[in-house]
Amino acid sequence: MKNRKNQNQSPSKNNRREFLKKGALAIGSITIVPSHILFARPELRNKEGEIIRRASVAASDRVNMACCGIGNRGGGIMGNFMDTGLSNFVALCDVDMGAPHTLQRMNENPNAKKFQDFREMFDKMEGEIDAVSVGTPDFSHFPITMLAMSKGKHVYVEKPMARTFNEIELMMAGAKKYNVATQMGNQGHSEANYFQFKAWVDAGIIKDVKEIVAHMNGKRRWHGWDTNMSKFPKGQPVPGTMDWDTWLMTAQPHDYQEDFVNGQWRCWYDFGMGALGDWGAHTMDAFHQFLNLGLPYEIDPVKIEGHNALFYPQASTLAFKFPERGNMPKVKVTWYDGVDNRPELPKGYGELQIDPNIPPVAGQKQATKLGAGKIIYGKDLTFKGGSHGSTLSIIPEEKAKDMASMLPEVPVSPSNHFKNFLLACKDEEECRSSFDIAGPLSQVFTLGTLAQRLNTKLKFDREAKKITNNDTANQLLVGTPPRKGWEEFYKL
After folding, report:
1. Rounded-to-integer distance, Cα 389 and Cα 269, Å
2. Which of 318, 420, 458, 470 is the most exposed place for a label (fewest CB within 10 A)?
């Protein structure tokens, strides 16, 4: 397949782009009814008769899926969907088709059509796709997701939702506009921790929380890099299997570099969200939702070790401050990352241990004795928790024994995260990490990474959704303009 860069002069592609642009400009005056709505199955309505979401997959059918990103984490997502028995892969898309990390899923699905460019995939297969999985780098979630939703496709997107605050805002609006099922890929949000946290809040076991600590203390890829680096590494030849122009998507031009791909993208502000975007979604998700935190009014970089303008710090301590919410008090959430930047542990915490949910960086051993997790300080009780679906325990142990008879029964999850999404495509369940839930959480991460990047305290107006004390940071809520030719995704 030719590189997309060499196909930009195709009349059919130009006509399609002009149609999208003109359609976006005409929204205010003309109602255009897409084919996916004209020919959709009946709508799912609530008791007031309002459309909740359009039914797009019959209960007896498998969900026809297109998978964007089929190597590394994207390939793992495919395996998870495959295990449900509810999916049928009709299209596979990856910018590096034929590389060792994509061959496995290609060989397992010989009948699925193969693409290097998601735009071409939708051009040719729009009518054959019910849902899309997005297992690509953080910065490329946005364009794929927006195009998929605009075509009426349900979307499962890895965490965090996107790289900038504004992109997440547009994704939340798009999910409502196009009435599709959406799920962010923080798997623990369908596991025991989710149901336990909700049950304990509802029962008043977790209450009057004023302070929370969340942490991720494993070694990351950029730890040990030269923090005096002032320019990106020198470019390298593009592998013959890769479409580098499409890999860049909306990002500013960069030469190919092995330190930008296959997980390394997480290191750079231009492409990824660092340890916070990666692990915040696995440690902060339940308390963010069930304590109704929303967005913070202040983000303070208490500690930034090894600050650099291009890539994430060697260690960070960030304090997020959230206001009162109804009868809930103000909360300070303090985030710690870095191997040796561990939080102070409360009395009775118990033994330190490596969290088995944390995958080590390739070729390296986990060097920390404290993995990823959280400590929640309530009015009368303190709770210790891990990441993903790990449940909370009350500390110290003596207090936990005293409380044992008062703890409510915790429901068993009816479906894991992947099955939950597919059942939502069939209108049999509601997504537990839909964009309206996962969006504000992901926006918290974008605010945190801005504080890391600029190494300065930020004050945030929650109502206006503006940073009020730093013009540069406020502009970065939107980010740099997309590359030429990629503007259309911000108008869908």
Report:
1. 28
2. 470
* Residues 262, 131 share a domain: no
User: Has residue 428 got a pLDDT over 90?
Assistant: yes
How far apart (Å, rounded) are the C-alpha atoms in residues 102 and 28? 43
The mean pLDDT of 445-473, rounded to a whole number, is 98
Domain match, 154 and 215 both: no
Q: Is 231 in contact with 237 (CB distance < 8 Å)?
A: no
Residue 51, pLDDT above cutoff 80: no
Q: Are 237 and 175 members of one domain?
A: no
Using the predicted structure, report yes or no on whether residue 2 has a pLDDT greater than 60: no
Q: What is the pTM of this model?
A: 0.87
For the chain, what is the domain count?
2
Confidence band for 21, pLDDT divided at 50, 70 and 90: very low
Among residues 93, 109, 111, which one has the least CA distance to residue 147? 93
Please check whether residues 269 and 397 belong to one and the same domain.
yes
Same domain, 118 and 227: no
**Does residue 434 lie within any of the structural domains?**
no
Residues 401 and 455 in one domain: yes
The domain boundary residue, chosen from 170, 187, 204: 187
CATH number at residue 367: 3.30.360
CA atoms of 300 and 318, how far apart (whole Å): 6
Task: Kindly report, residue by residue over 199-246, the tens digit of the pLDDT.
Answer: 999 999 999 999 999 999 989 999 999 999 999 999 999 999 999 999
Which of 187, 222, 255 is a domain's end point?
187
Residue 49: CB partners within 8 Å, gap ≥ 6? none
Residues 6+ apart with CB under 8 A from 483: 248, 249, 250, 251, 252, 253
Q: Specify if 420 maps to a domain.
A: no
- Candidates 116, 123, 164, 124; CA nearest to 142 is 164
- Torsion angle defined by CA atoms of residues 360, 191, 198 and 370, in that order, rounded to the nearest 10 degrees: -20
- So what's the pLDDT on residue 370? 74
Q: What is the dihedral of CA 368, 192, 89, 146, to 10 degrees?
A: -80
Percent composition of the chain: helix, strand, coil (DSSP 3-state, to 5):
35, 15, 45
On the 0-12 / 13-18 / 19+ scale of CB atoms within 10 A, 433 is buried
Are 207 and 136 within one domain? no
Q: How far is CA 170 from CA 145, 161, 289, in A?
A: 10, 11, 20
Mean pLDDT of 352-371: 56
Task: Give the chain's largest Cα–Cα span.
Answer: 73
Residue 492 within a domain:
no
Do residue 180 and residue 290 come from a single domain?
Answer: no
CB half-sphere exposure, 43, CA atoms < 13 A: 15
- Residue 172 domain boundaries: 4-187
Helix (H, G, I), strand (E, B) or coil at 378: coil
